[in-house]
């Protein structure tokens, strides 16, 4: 379901999106345990991440923007699952939505575009790690056919406490 107040355009991310993408990510670094990064990034520090997601291939960056204002509402990525060559047909996926754009279907639009793009690539499995608790993310991943395969207990420490990460898998 697209946002009521604006049409949303989903497209590959470009270098001009870097400031907005960094701001969205830094919100989750500062305010949540959704990511286990603990220090915010400058756009320059985040640039190699953006460049590691070209417009083609298995490692993508899809951006949702308000069609009128072009304001970035969120993004989804597929990234290498592990660095060893035999993992090359597996990706790790993630979605980040601007804090004021949640619960408007942005994550769904992003994953629809991401998985459509990945359908043309040599990718066999997608994985997602979800720091617990995070019911909205679990629901989103279930809608896209991910299934729970295990939980790493107290695997990350942030904000003075330990967090579990539930792992999900999707056949592509």
UniProtKB/TrEMBL annotation:
Residue span, N-acetyltransferase domain: 8-172
Keywords: Acyltransferase, Transferase
One Pfam family this sequence matches: Acetyltransf_4
Protein's UniProt name: N-acetyltransferase family protein
Source species of the chain: Streptomyces lavenduligriseus
Lineage: Bacteria, Bacillati, Actinomycetota, Actinomycetes, Kitasatosporales
